[in-house]
Amino acid sequence: MTEQTTDTGVKPPEQAAAPAAEAVTEAPAAEAVTEAPAAEAVTEAPAAEAVTEAPGAARAAPAEPAEPVGRPDIAAPAEQPGPDIAVPAEQLGPDAEPKPRASRRPLLWAVARWTAAALVFGGVGAGTALGITSMERTDVPGLATESDGRWAYPELSLPALPADVPRPFTEGNDGEIHHADLRRLLLPAPAGATPDPKLNGGWVGVDQFLSQYRTDERAELSELLKESALRHIAARGWTTPDGTTTRIHLLRFNSVAFAETFKDDALQAGSVAGPLLEGVEGVQVDSDAALDIRVPYTALYSFVELPQNDDQSRWAYIQAGDTVALIAQSRDGEALTVPFQQTVALQNQLLS
After folding, report:
1. Lesser CB count within 10 Å: N end or C end of the chain?
2. Are strands 299-305 and 283-285 parallel, antiparallel or unpaired?
3. Burial of 306 by CB count in 10 Å (0-12 exposed, 13-18 middle, 19+ buried)?
4. Helix or strand or coil: residue 120?
5. What is the pLDDT confidence band of residue 110, given thresholds at 50, 70 and 90?
6. In degrees to the nearest 10, what's the CA dihedral of 311, 278, 197, 331?
7. Residue 213 DSSP one-character state
8. What is the pLDDT of residues 111-168, one digit of tens each?
9. In angstroms, rounded to a whole number, what is the distance separating the alpha carbons of residues 17 and 90?
């Protein structure tokens, strides 16, 4: 906001001295001029004009008041105090003391000081308001919004498909098949994360997927995978600065029926009776995550490790048509809820 100020110079009114030895001039309408008694202050006319005796003129003794000059039908008004007007010394009688002029300088200086102060404070206030409005909320002390723990993922987009090839869960794709390259459907790592060289977003073998589970669970899972018409597995992993390790595996089957069978029979995703991840001794259904993350046409099952040991794991299964996803996170101390739910939600959307 731009402030505009206008300097107004205050100038005293011009004063006209009565010529020496001239007759008294006619006062303005509705004003009467009287001769000043000897040795008395000059009577000031209400119209801010002064009439004085000419220098050297004989001083008359007090006499009857002079007849009003001007219109005889208008009575002279009672004397009223008017503004102080300085009279040059040469126009005063020999015995008259010049009346000191009332100084306006202190008043003008006071007005100037207060005006300057108002402008300074107004400018500072406007500058502060402009500065605050141009700042991000997180930059304003006392108004900063504390991060809720979410990670900074890059902007996501679905991979392009060939012409006339429908996406899953759209008209013309009754088999709910993902025609896109499965590796392109993997969630990318967030900002600041260190990629896992073994899970770099490419294809992985069955053994790598089975290594996510406890040793005593792997043989049975391997047999069930062989019976489920598995096509291929894509995987990506990373570790964030807070120590959270994330692993995502996408398994594509020949049909929705094979994917659903593996989810229900091998993973037993609907209960805590399914295979446990490596290092996990107990598990509990994470119903809050399943309720908070809902994507149409997909099924989500979420779990959390209990009791908590030195570290903790969280994992979730997603079935989206012909594809089953495993999203797992582990962290020393506690596996945080917010980044886990964020990661699961974004991966679910990429598969929907």
Report:
1. N
2. antiparallel
3. middle
4. helix
5. low
6. -10
7. B
8. 667 766 666 555 555 444 444 444 454 544 444 445 678 999 999 999 988 888 888 8
9. 10
